[in-house]
Amino acid sequence: MDRGNVYMGRILLVDLNKGTCEEEELSQDLIEEHVGGAAINLALYERYQDRDPVVMGTGLLTGTFAPSACAGVLTGKSPVTGRVCHVPLLGQTAVELKYSGFDFIVILGESEKPVRLWLHDELAEVVGAGDVWGKDVWETVEKLRFEHGDDYVQIVCIGPAGEKGSLLAQVSESYWGSRDIFGLGASLGKKKLKAIAMRGLGSLEVAEGFFDECVQLKNEIASGRIRGVQGLVPILESLGADPEGLKAVQARVHRNVASFNCIYPYNSFVMIEEDPKLLKESQKKEPGLLLTDPAGVASLLFLKEGLPAVLRKINRLGLDPAACGRILAKQGVTDAGEAEKSLAAFLVEGFSLDGQGVENVYGAAPWPLSVGLEARLVQAASLFSHSLPPQPALASFEDFSAPDDAAGRARWWLERQAACLILGICPLSALLSPELSLEKMAGLAAKACQWDSLTEDVIRGKARQLVQKTAALAEPKGKLPSAWQDPEFEASVKGLLQGG
Amino acid sequence: MELAVESLKCTGCRICEYACNYHHDLDCSANGASLMLHRTEKKNYFGMMVKGERNLMLARPEGPELVAPGAQVEGAGASSKPILMRAPCDRCEGEDEPFCVKACPTGCLFIKE
Amino acid sequence: MQEQARRLRIGIYAGEGASHSWTWFVDLLERFNYLRIRFVQEQDLHRHLPDLDVLILSGGDTFEVARALEPSGPQALRVFLERGGLYIGSCAGAYLPLNSSKEHLSSFNFVRAKINNLTRDLPAVRALPLKFSTRYGCTYVIHPVREEVVVRMAEDFPVWGGREVTVPLYGGPPLQPSEDIEPFAFYSGFTGRTLFLTDPEIAERVYLGKIAACEKSIGAGRMVLLGPHFEHPGFPEGNAIVEEWIRWHVARTPLRRLPETGRREENAEGCLLDPLLLESLKKEVSNMRIRAAALARETVYWQIGAKVYEPEKILHFVEVVWSRLARLKAQRGKTSEPGSGEPLKELAASCHARLRELSEKVSRAQETQELAEALFSDLRRLTAAFLESYFRTIARGEAPGRREEASAQRTMHRKALTRR
Q1: Which of A223, A420, C74, C206 has the most CB atoms less than 10 A away?
Q2: What is the pLDDT of residues A424-436, one digit of tens each?
Q3: pLDDT given at position C262
C-alpha cells in the first residue's frame, strides 16, 4: 500500500490548554485498520476521549483525482444531541487541510483565551485570536484572508453564535456555512477556538493509470442521471419543496458552483442587491450569497423573496439555517426584516429548539420536507448530518438499487454516508449519482494507493463498523418528535445502529 | 492551436488545474499548472486564466481578454529571462488529449484551431 | 580529479544588476555536488575574490553590474584571473568583459572580441518589440532570436566535441572570431521553438557560424564566455557542458591551494539546523510563499531599469529558498552562537514585511513601483544570504544536498521553456 499517494502522513495534536501543537505519524497500521476520514477520526476521538476532542479529518481519496473527492469530516460529541457525530466538510477546506501537510487534526481541551490555528506548509501555529473574536463569520474570513495575503486560504470558523454557546451554532466553511446541525460550532466556541485557517501548497503522488480511471468514472457520472441539471433548486424540487418558494429562489440564481472536483454543481449563488444576469464583476461589495445548504434553504422557503437576505444574516452569525427556519416559522415571522431582527435573540448560551418549543430530533432540526419512514430512521440515528437529504435526490432509491423496505433503505443511506466519509467522496454527490457506486469508489481507492485488498466488501464492513461504534459511544439526550415516538420506530433505530 | 474556455460552463471545480499540473510535474497539486482559477468568491465572479507562450488569456465570464505581460510597460528592455514557476500551456504535446479537457466535468475547455 | 574539482571554492555574483538566472547556476552546481559556494554582493567582490577559485556572473543588466562593481571590482578580477581563477560569464556576464568605451563598461576591458549583433539601422521587428533591442550609444544591440538555438561544440572540446546541443538564448552575444579568444561553440541553427523577433535572414546573418561560447586565457586563469544560458534547468546537456568546462579548467590549471584565510565562519550566520532558527525561518518563508503565490495570480507588472518584472519573479526567489529550507530537518543539540541567526531572521522578516506591504497596495490598486524595486533587491539579498548558510551546512555534510532525487528529476521533466 502506497500511503504517499493519498495522505501526507501527519496527524496534528493541538493542545488548547497549553497552546501547543505536536505531530504524530499517520501510521500504516492506522490506515490499514480504519482506512480514513470518519473512521480514523473516530479512532482518534476514542484515544483522546478524556480531552473532549473535536477531530477534523480527511478521507483516503480527499484531494485526489477521484470524482467528487472533496469531503472531509468533523467528528465530536454534539452538545445538541449528546451523540458523537460526523459532520461532512464539503467546501474546499478538507482539500486545503490535506495539502497543507496534515491529514487529521485533533483539537484537545480548551483555551483560556480566544485562539486560532494557522496551518501551512507542514507548519502549525496556535495564534491569539483577539483580533477576530467577536467578529461575524464574514468579517473573520475576510480578516484572515487579508492577514495571510491570499484569498485561497480556507477557513473553518465560528461566528457570534458559537462564541456565545448557542446550541444553534454552526461551524462555517468560508462564508457559506456547513452541514453542521449538531452544534459543533458551540463546541469550538467553548474551546475558544475561533478559526482554523489553512493554505495547502503541497502535492500528492499519483499511481499509474489512476488519472485515466478517474476520468472514466467522471464521464459516466457526467453523462448519467445528473446530465443537463445544475444547482440546488432541482435537488430541492425533486424532494418536494414548495414550488413557489423555489421559483423565487431560482429567479435570483446567478451561476452554480461546484466544490473541488465535484461533477454536479450543487451550490447556487443568488444575487440579492444585484442583477442575476450580470456577467461582469459586480461593483457591489456583497451582492449576494452562495446557497450550499439543502435543509437550510428548504426550511426558509416560506420567506420567498426574503430568503437570501435572511440566510446571509444567518451565515454571518454562524447559525444553523435549518434550525433558524423552524423557529422563525413557529414565531410566525414572514418578513425578511423581522426575521433578521429575531436572529439576535438566538445568540445566547444554550439557546435551543427545545427551549423554543420547536419539534426536533434529539435537539437537532429535522429534515424540513416530508419524507418516508427510512428518512425518519436515519435522522433518528443522529450520526451523520441530515442537512443533506436523508434520501436520494434527482434519482430514486430504485435508481440506486437500494432495498425495498424502509429499514433496508435506512441502512443503505447510513452505509453510503459512512463509506463516503471514510473515503472522502462527497456524500451529497453520492445521493445524486447512481453511477458513483460503492464498487467504483472502492476500485478507485484501491488503485489510488495500490491497496489490492481494499475491496467493496471491506469498505462496506468499515462503514458498518463506523455506524455501530459511533452509536455505541453515547446515547442521545433529548427526545424525538412526538409523531415519531413509537416503540417499534425506536426499536428499528436501535436495530440499525447495532448492525441489524 | 490554443486552449479555449467556454467560461459560462465553468463551475469552478478546479480539477483542470490539478490535471494540468499532473501533465507538467507528474504529481497531484495546483502549483505548476498553466491555468489558474481567478475567483472573487463573495461576488461569484470567477474564470480561468491560461498562461500561453506569449500571452495570458483571461477567460472572463463576460468575454475573453488577452494580456501581454509587460507590454503595457513602456520602454521595457531586452533580455528578460523567463520565470519557471508555471510552464505555459503546451496543449499537452505528446498526449492523446489535453489533460484539462479530459478532466473537466462540464466540457468547458477545448482546443481551438 | 573529480575530488579536486569538488573542492573548488565558487563565488556566484548575486549583487546589483543580477537578475534571477544566477539561481540556475546554484541548482546546477548543487546537482553536480559542487557545494563550496559563496554568494557575492557588489560591495564585497574584491574581498571575496582572493578566497575563490571560480567566479560566476550570469544574466541581468550589464551596465548596472559594471557600475556596481566599480571602483575596486575590475582590478580584483584581474588579480583573480592572473593567479589562476576561472570566470564563467553567461549572457550579461559574457558582455561585461568585452572591450567598450562606454562609462563603467570601459573598466572591464578584458576581451577584444566584438559582438556580431550591433547595428546602426534598426531592422523591422516582428515580435516582442520591447525585447528586440537596446540602445548602445548611437547604435543598437539587437536580439533577432530568443528561446532555443542550436550550437555545435568545437571538435577539441572534451566529451562533447563535435556534438550539437540545444540551449536557450535570451539576449546573449554572438561573437566574431578574434585572436584573443578560443572558440568552443558556434551557433549552428534554430529549432521549431526558436522565436524570431525579426526577419530570419537577419537572424542567420547575426548568429550562424558566429561564436556562442569561448575562452580567453588571462595569466594563469581564464574567462569562459557563454552567449546562451547553458545553465538553464530545462537543458541538461547545456548543464553538463558547464560542468565539463569546470573540470577541464581544473585539469589544465595547477590548482594552487591558496592559504585559507583562516576566518572561522562556521557559525557566522547561525546554524540552520538549530530548531529555533529553522522553525522561525520556515514560518517566515512559508508565509512569504503563500503571499507571493497569491500575488502571482494578479496581472500587475513593474519596470525596473530596462526590464519588466512580474509577480512570479517574487515567487521564484522565495521558492529557491523554500525548496531547500523545507527539506532541512532540525537537529537537537544544534544551536547557533548567541545572536548569530539574527541577521538572516531579520532579513527574512523585513523581506516579508515589504512583500506584505506590496501585496496590500496591489490589492488596493495603489502605486507600488518604488516598493517593488526595494523588494526585488531585498529578495536577492535574502536568497543569497540563505544560500550562503545553506551551502555551508551541506558542505559540512550535516544535511543532504539535492542530488538527482525523484522530485528534482520531475522538475527537470517539466521545466520546459517558458516564453514571455
Answers
A1: A420
A2: 999 999 999 999 9
A3: 47
Smallest Cα distance from B17 to chain C, Å: 13
CATH number (3.30.420.40, 3.50.50.60, 3.40.50.880, 3.40.50.2030) of C2-252 reads 3.40.50.880
- Classify A276 as helix, strand or coil: coil
- Spatial CA neighbour of C44 closest among C361, C392, C418, C385: C385
pLDDT of residue C78: 96
Q: What is the mean pLDDT of residues C305-318?
A: 85
User: For A220, which residue in chain B has the nearest alpha carbon?
Assistant: B105
Owning domain of residue A123: 3-199
- pTM exceeds cut of 0.90: yes
pLDDT at C128: 77
Return the closest-CA partner of residue A326 out of A291, A300, A288: A300
Residues contacting residue C181 through CB under 8 Å, at least 6 positions apart: C111, C112, C113, C175, C211, C214, C215, C216, C225
In terms of CA atoms, which chain B residue is nearest residue C316? B85
Per residue in B46-80, pLDDT (tens digit) is: 999 999 877 889 999 999 998 876 555 444 443 34
- Is A338 a member of any domain? no
Side chain identity at residue A97, one-letter code: L
C 297-316 near B (Cβ less than 8 A)? 297, 299, 301-303, 305-308, 310, 312-313, 315-316
Assign residue A336 a region (left: φ > 0; alpha: ψ between -120 and 50; beta: otherwise): alpha
Please say if the pLDDT value at position A244 is more than 70: yes
pLDDT band, residue B1 (cuts 50/70/90): confident
Q: Is C221 within 8 Å of C85 (Cβ atoms)?
A: yes
Put simply, the answer to whether B79 touches C20 (Cβ < 8 Å) is: no
Q: What's the gap in Å between the CA of C321 and the closest CA on chain A? A: 14
